[in-house]
Amino acid sequence: MKKDKQERKKYTDAMIKKLLPKNRRYYLLDSECIGLRIYVQITGEKSFYLQRYISEYKYSKRTKIGDFPEMSITQARKLGAMIKADNVQGKDPILAKAARQKEKTLGDIVEEFEKKKLDAKTSSRNKRNIDDERGQIGAYIYGTSNDAGIQKLWKKYPDAMNIKSKRLSDITTEDIFEYHGAITSRTKYSANRMVRLIRKYYNYAMRKNYFIGKNPASMPKKELNVEEKDHYDYYNTKAMKKLITQLIKFRKKPEYRVPCNAILAALYCGGRPQSEVFNLTIDQIDLDKKLIHYKKSKVGQWSRPINDTMIEHLRYIIELRSNADPVHYY
Question: Which of 94, 262, 294, 326 is the most exposed, fewest CB within 10 Å of its CB?
Fold first, then answer.
């Protein structure tokens, strides 16, 4: 009996769901993954099979790869393509599938990296740097942060954020793009940082022979968020000296004197909390011992040393006030 020629179609989950059983088992051919067949049993149950030629056996072989609807047509195509790729390399698809099940997830790699590379006792990196990376991992890989904004991010983009549970070979560059985009909706700087960290973790996995292939997080810089430099950037020594020179020059003008002296004090002092600086009085400054005595707080009264440059600057301000300077005398 001559069999009817099958027509390949681009099936969807909705189309497969509507397939009705017949008085015998039958199958349909998918056009998007050559060799992928959708089998419909007499009972109405549906399954995905992959038919392909294996040179090792010298004949065509059929392998069941999943049941519908537990496995979607998109997942079946992806798995079918992976099995066919294994087949081209001469690997047995069943053994290759077992190997994939044993493959480490990104979460496994990050956990191992933390234990071996982010241990403050053995790492050469400073503790603050280590704690910062651990914080990023907790927030954007494990999802353990208590921050309400980050928790809201995980609830809004659960699929894009949950890449820790995916096997290394299953994560694509598109997955990284979606992950980056989800974090960008909250903070573009952390989004860029996480892509760089994931790239580092993949490089670690490659060095340990856990992963072979192209690093999916190797995204061009132009594909990431533009990070604008702002006033939080550090000045180098040359720029700092130039800034100080200009402030000393401008403070000669009465209208600029107070702000210029305030900025100079902050620069000379290396930065202090506003609550400390704005409430200082002359009696708290000991120029001879080079100390500033801060008022009692929750931790008690305490003192901080000040350098010679700051001493000279304070003497200058005190002299201005003693001479009834029109802007410093109040």
Answer: 326
Q: Take residue 145 and report the two structure tokens written for it.
A: 């942060």
0.85 exceeded by the pTM?
no
Residue that is written with structure tokens 């060799």 in the block: 35
First-to-last alpha carbon distance for the chain, in angstroms, is 110
Query: Which tops the pLDDT comparison, 114 or 257?
Result: 114
Distance CA 48, CA 7 (A): 17
N residues, the chain: 330
- Summary count for the chain: helices (H), strands (E): 13, 7
Fold entry, domain 13-101:
Double Stranded RNA Binding Domain (3.30.160)
Is residue 124 predicted with pLDDT exceeding 90? no
What is the Cα–Cα distance from 45 to 42, expressed in whole angstroms? 7
| CB 49 within 8 Å of CB 27 | yes
Q: Return the pLDDT at 256.
A: 86
Q: Which fold has domain 237-322?
A: hpI Integrase; Chain A (1.10.443)
